[in-house]
Amino acid sequence: MAKIQMTTPLVEMDGDEMTRIIWQMIKDELICPHVDLKTEYYDLGLEHRNATDDQVTVDSAEATKRLGVAVKCATITPNAARMDEYDLKQMWKSPNGTIRALLDGTVFRTPITVAGIEPCVRSWVKPITIARHAYGDVYKNTELRVPGPGTVELVYTAADGTETRELVHEFDGPGIAQGMHNLDASIESFARSCFEYALDVKQDIWFATKDTISKKYDHRFKDIFQEIYDAEYAARFEEAGIEYFYTLIDDAVARV
Fold this sequence. Notes:
By secondary structure, this protein is α/β, with parallel strands linked by helices. The protein has helices at residues 18-31, 46-51, 55-67, 80-85, 95-103, 184-201, 217-240, 249-255; strands at residues 4-5, 10-14, 35-36, 39-43, 70-72, 106-109, 130-133, 142-146, 150-157, 163-171, 175-179, 205-209, 244-248.
């Protein structure tokens, strides 16, 4: 039987430890006998990331932009113990975080339903897809170890030099602080990805934040989603017979 021919290569991101062995077995036994596999290969094993000062991770993301499809194996995000084990130059950041930031990517985690394999919760008859924004937030945070009493503030300096300041906390002893950011443009891209995915697979969207507590950060997500839905997707969702609604994250969990 003739092999399936590929016209465009995909990006192949190899991983760490047992993943490398399993991925090679998958290719040898399940893919290559049937498909004329064409890939652009990148070794994201921790040793090679260290040798290239993590440039290989950036290169793999740029290749994904160019070719459109990538397969990535599991990789190690090093901690202090891995620093010694692999004799690393520095504690390299999460490859997933680097790649997603460069792609301005949205992560969809969706179950693969297989006939004959039944869910543990029998009342779950439709798959639930989790969509996660993959830019900014904790992946691009700035952290500070507060050594003792003092003040931590958020400071925004505008192009004209004017400052806006918000108190984070008055510390009366040691502690920690963390700053996060996001971009309207990236949130808008996330929203459109979610709406387009929902239309493609005919799934309702439940969008949830904690805007009752995070009245500026989370609330910005809520507003942008609603604005884009009303302007670009309301009629398409109605025609497709699917629904979009906003709720608190507590309620979304309860509904699941």
